[in-house]
Amino acid sequence: MSTSNVGIDPLHSLHVVIELNLSWLDACLVLDDRALDGLWTREQWSRELSDPRRLCIGLTNDSAGLLAIACGWLVVDELHITAVATDPDHRRQGHAKSVLGALLQRARQENASHATLDVAAGNTSALALYNLLGFRTAGRREGYYRDGRDALIQWLRLHPPLQSSNN
Question: What CATH code is carried by the domain that includes residue 9?
Answer without folding.
Answer: 3.40.630.30
